Amino acid sequence: VDIREIQEIRPGNNSRDFDRYQEDPSFRSDPSHCFVVLYGMEFRLKTLSLQATSEDEVNMWIKGLIWLVGDTLKAPTPLQIER
After folding, report:
1. Could you identify which of 8, 24, 46, 52 might form a hypothetical disulfide with 57, taking C-beta atoms 3.0 to 4.6 angstroms apart as the criterion?
2. CA nearest to 15, candidates 1, 5, 2, 29
């Protein structure tokens, strides 16, 4: 996933990916351990559905990704290309 394409980061397990595996008995989706990254073009967003081991880990990932997206978008174009 290109950092510049990330549009939104949502906590919770609200995505079709998580719904698809609800019938699998080996899959346990705790909403507080999940988050979804929406990326791509505005009208054709793709999802990256992720599950962490703890709620603290989810919060660290979300906070880090939000910072990384903001820092990347504020960077000058030559630096964005280099990254």
Report:
1. 52
2. 29
